[in-house]
Amino acid sequence: RQCVVVEQYRKCLLHLILLSACSLLFLPFDLMLANVLLTLPQPPTITHQSPKDFIIDPRENILIYCEAKGKPHPSFSWTRNGTHFDVEKDSKVLMKPSSGTLVIDISGEKAEAYEGIYQCTARNEHGTAVSNNIFIRQSRSPLWSKERKEAIMVQVGVSLVLQCGPPAGLPPPIIFWMDNNFQRLPQNTRVSQALNGDLYFSNVLLDDTRNDYICYARFPHTQTIQQKQPITVKVLDSNPSGERRPSFMAPLGRSSTQMALRGGVLELECIAEGLPTPEVSWYKESGDLPSSRMSFHNFQKTLKIADVMEADAGDYRCTAKNSLGSAHHTIKVNVKAAPFWISAPRNLILAPKETGILTCRVSGDPKPQIAWSVNGVPIKDSPKDTSRKVEDDTVILSDVQTGSSAVYQCNASNEFGYLLANAFVNVLAEAPRVLTPPNNVYQVITNNPAFLDCASFGSPIPTITWLVHLTSILNRDPYVIHNNGTLEINVAQSLNSGKYTCIASNNLGTRENHVYLEVKEPTRILAQPEYMVVQRNRKAVFECKVKHDPTLIPTMNWLKDNGELPDDERFLVDTDSLTINEVTEEDEGTYTCVMNTTLDQDSASAMLTVVEATPTPAIVYEEPDPPTDLELTDQRERSVQLTWIPGDEHNSPTQIQYEDLLHQAGVWHNLTEEEGTKTTAHLDLSPYAYYSFRVLAVNHVGYSQPSQPSRQYRTNPAAPDVNPTDVHGVGTEHNNLVISWKELTGLQSNGPGLQYKVNWRQKDVEEDWLSETVANASKYVVSGTPTFVPYEVKVQAVNDYGNGPAPEAVVGYSGEDVPMSAPESVQVLVQNGTLAEVHWEPVLTSMVRGRLQGYKVSYWRERSLHQAEAQQEEQQVLLFSGNRTDGRLPGLKPYSLYTLNIRVVNGKGEGPPSPNHNFETPEGGEGPHSDSYCCWIDSLYMETRCFISNELGPVEEMMFPANETTVILADLKYSTRYKFYFNAKTIKGSGPTITEEAVTIMDEVRPIGPAFTNVNSSVVGEEGAVISWEYFGPDKNVYVEYIVENSKEDWTKECVNGSSGSQTHLIKGLKPGTSYRVRLVVKDHSEATIHSTEELVITLPAMKSDQVDLATQGWFIGLMCAIALLILVLLIICFIKRNKGGKYPVKEKEDAHQDPEIQPMKDDDGTFGEYSDTEDHKPLKGSRTPSNGTVKRDDSDDSLVDYGEGGDGQFNEDGSFIGQYSGKKEKDTHEGNESSEAPSPVNAMNSFV
User: Which residue windows does the record flag with biased composition (Polar residues) (predicted)?
Assistant: First the structure.
């Protein structure tokens, strides 16, 4: 069955394809159509390209995408900065085969050499398509300018601003403040960070005194972190500031202005000072704040509005208030818009001498300027074409000719951006082809509509005609020829059976196809099962005799209460009956016989009532006699009055039925019921129906035989009273929207020519409703939609007499596509040997491209840490539903290496995986605890209760969800007996209690396996070292001990945090140039060592050359003496030669062989260079500085680095630094501003921003 294709859609999609993209296409048609299209010539179409603004990583090869299709396959070329880019002449540039994608190898090259604006051109003999202008820029992370900060002195209570002033990077850096222990500085309503990175104090306290306010800048694209010089703040209380009303620190004044772009994010900020600390609130003067897109941040000081719209323009007032008063600031927001599509130009396929229109409808603020090009050349510069007319956003092509195919480009731009679209015009001359398979046989039941397909294509569009018995069929009752060539027979009768011929013709030829129609007799139940009252242990028999078309194979099914019959041998199913032997009370119910064929079905039901057997003679129950003498009176447009004479057993309730001879002849429907005392009924009718009525009487035995039908009563046609129900909008592909509905019945049509007007438009977008009218369909496909956007849809019934009521709009979504990106910032927190937590940053909604189902975590065990060779096990998968950012991985094996990755999942499928992330589980411990007492608890809904007590302590109560059966009890006392009481609890109360006793281990009994793992060390400067480890023991007395190597002194001991998990400790005050032995130990209450790690040897670097007294070094004294002696010998020889009259050309040799490395000690201004402490220029160990000229040696490169070597660094969720700093500083002697490619700890910093 095909949908109706209107003229506008016909020309827009393929222009020559009558089949169209309707929802009920048969699959063979699609395959045949696809095969035909592959043989047709087609101008190029760009299918994939890189984004307009493309920021590259200078450490990786540059990949610029350009993919296109066409027939023949297009060739590709590039321009850079407006001039031809000869790919073949550059050995570093490779173009992929059969593609325009460029791969630029920048190894050994400067990435900035390939910066610029690139544009790809795809051409074949039918036209030229161009890509967007792709702006290639390399990411930059410049260093902080060097500055010396004086201590800031402030009085208690005054306001303060600590400026960050980060260097401008590409993209801009993310700012955060920490102290020199890598702890994030706490922020609250009094102290907060502004959008520009500055740290604001509404009023200062004495506790704010410190010398390590450090601003950090993280450049996410290059994974580089830079730090500013620490700022010292001293708060004095000699002249404290008193309480005062609020005033604004940012922005200043009573009002300000801010501009936002449509579709972007608007961030408004108000930071106030005052004492007491003021609270900030927001409201919009000209309307309500958009609650669904609005959020508050930074302790109400920042108002963030996502997906900005024109309605968001206006005045926003922020109010700062404390107990002494309030202050106000008004921010006037102006909303501008880069160009956005209202209707992009679409491809056209035209026949010779036809006319086509390309439309490029855009909007924006300011209004975009539209420029047209053809085959990449501006139309104003291309050869004049009299068949082409340009009118602003429209190109009209008249009387096109074969060979005039081309690709047109529409460029709409304003000061905020541009849009570029390619649309080809393909001029084809094709003879007709019929896609419907020949000799198709269509079967339909009598009095139902029949649809015979004639799917075809050609250029010009073929004309479709139909023949039956060699007679031409006209488009009139009972035939309807749809625009897509389908022949509809409204009410098929047996005389309509036979051979039909469809003919498709245009000026290039004619094709015909034959199909066959078979009209079958309907399936009808002649003898229906009747209501029965049967005594218990007797037999019940239901009859169901059926008439059906002899060419159709029937299938009889019996149901009890709309379910399957009981699996009981007492139930016997025969060809036309159901027998129940020895009935019981459980057999009571409604029994239905259902007769199915391949085309239709019929069913009938009856009730069975089971009564007790009685010794008294049974009363014989009979059904009443049928009513007689039906008469129609008071005949109106929508109603009629029916009267009758009751049969025997008067006062029996009556059932009135009707038959619609126009729409469903032979089918009787229940209309209404009346009390047994009534003999007249007022019947409400529907328009456009041929009614006949009959009446049945009913008692507790069953229905009477129906009365004789009344005379026929016809109602006049009218406009529909109702619209289709169950309207839905759901996409099946990433670029379509399927609008479906439940069709009206023939009785609901109210008149001939029933059709459905389908309306749709994108939600929250100012555009007109689009509509399409279809007939005999229950859905319609809208193609070319954006991926997963909301649409408003509505469906209205129309017929030849008017439209139905105004329909209500429902919201649906266009089709989903697989997600485009993977979760980022994946971190794993190992809880113990069998459990780990994984955290990630959620994927942006725009990259999910569908309805978020959740996140799929795939993980597998690579090997045991006892084994060197990999023994990868089967992959395990967990799906965390919803917009989760973390999950737990249970059932891990201790002391193993695991790998995991994460994908986002939507309704269409899975996105790409995140990079594989490795983690290790610690060794597991053994103990006397039963498995029944081990679990983790993370639920807030608890149903199982556990009471714990020891011999001396009170009872403690814990509650768990019903689906958890184990728990771990930590921090218990050694050598202590505990008693456990368990019971279950529901809303009705607690169940019985069971008990169990257990004794904790003795002090000297320790868990098997090492208490410490992953012990590492790294040097920090010249006088410090960082020790990191993971600890899993129960004892809390953990110490770091160190001693000078080969020394006989006692170990120096420093107490550290004894909690389980990853820990770090900084040892300060070590001697430069000295080697130390370091170990971790655990002691019991008597200071006896329980656990001890292997000793690490740490060697601190010697003092810098400017701090070492070379004059006291023996090797230096000996070297100087040798040089002095050599110079003395040379001077004596020169003196002797001069006295003899000889000439020693020292000056000439110096002039001829001047050493290029010799540089004056003075700067250009004639003064000696100022001393610069190398500690001020230490980049973060492992940070990657781009290989470009953005890192200048005269700037400061203060960073978090050069404090040590070792494993990757991590941060806790509260921002504290864990682990070691990693990496190794390397400097190329010729590229002083190049940084190494060592591993970076920056991933650890991602938890802050």
Answer: 1235-1249
What are residue 256's phi and psi, to 5 degrees?
A: -155, 170
Q: Furthest-apart CA pair in the chain: how many Å?
A: 167
For residues 910-918, give the mean pLDDT: 93
∠ at Cα 544 (543, 545), nearest 5°? 115
Q: Supply the mean pLDDT for the chain.
A: 81
Under 8 Å CB-to-CB from 1006, ≥6 apart: which residues? 1033, 1090, 1091
DSSP single-letter state for residue 113: G
DSSP 174-232: EEEEE-TTSPBPP--SSEEE-TTS-EEESS--GGG-EEEEEEEEEETTTTEEEEPPPEE
Query: Could you read off the pLDDT of 514-543 as tens digits, one per residue?
Result: 999 999 999 988 888 999 999 999 999 999
Q: 447-475: b or e for each residue (b if 16 or more CB lie within 10 Å)?
A: bbbbbbbbbbbbbbbbebbbebeeeebee
Is residue 580 within 8 A of residue 570, CB to CB? The reply is: yes
One-letter amino acid of 265? V
Instruction: Output the six-digit token pair for 965.
Output: 């059966």
E-strand ranges in 675-823 read: 680-684, 690-697, 713-714, 725-730, 736-742, 755-762, 770-774, 779-783, 790-799, 802-803, 810-813
What span, in angstroms and rounded, lies between the C-alpha atoms of 530 and 605? Answer: 8
Do the beta carbons of residue 1091 and residue 1082 sit within 8 Å?
yes
The single-letter DSSP state of residue 140 is: B
Distance CA 1242, CA 867 (A): 31
Strand pairing of 93-95 and 356-359? unpaired
Distances (CA, A) of 1040 to 752, 962, 1062: 93, 44, 15
Q: What is the C-alpha to C-alpha distance for residues 609 and 617, in angstroms, rounded to an integer?
A: 18
Q: Order across the sheet with 294-297: list the strands.
A: 266-269, 302-305, 294-297
Q: Are 456 and 439 in contact (CB under 8 A)?
A: no
Q: Could you identify the residue written with the tokens 């990949």?
A: 63
Cβ within 8 Å of residue 183, ≥6 positions away:
1214, 1215, 1216, 1217
- Look at the block and give the residue holding tokens 């597998």: 860
- Tally Cβ neighbours within 10 Å of residue 20: 20
> What is each CA distance from 1056 to 1041, 1089, 1205, in whole angstroms?
10, 15, 21
Spatial separation of the C-alpha atoms in residues 98 and 73, rounded to whole Å? 8
Q: What DSSP string describes 1056-1072? A: E---SEEEEEEE--PPT
> What SS3 state is found at 653?
coil
> What pLDDT, on the 0 to 100 scale, is given for residue 651?
64
- CA separation for the pair 138, 62 (Å, rounded): 10
Q: What tokens does 1105 get?
A: 């050359």
Count of C-beta atoms within a 10 Å radius of residue 1077: 16
CA 332 to chain centroid:
34
The whole-angstrom separation of Cα 1008 and Cα 1023 is 37
For residue 1135, the surrounding DSSP H or E stretch is helix 1114-1139
d(CA 1062, CA 523): 77
Strands 886-889 and 835-841: antiparallel
Confidence band of 617 (pLDDT split at 50, 70, 90): low
Length of the chain counted residue by residue:
1249
Give tens-digit pLDDT for 1235-1248. Answer: 333 333 334 344 44
Residue 2: how many CB atoms within 10 A of its CB? 27
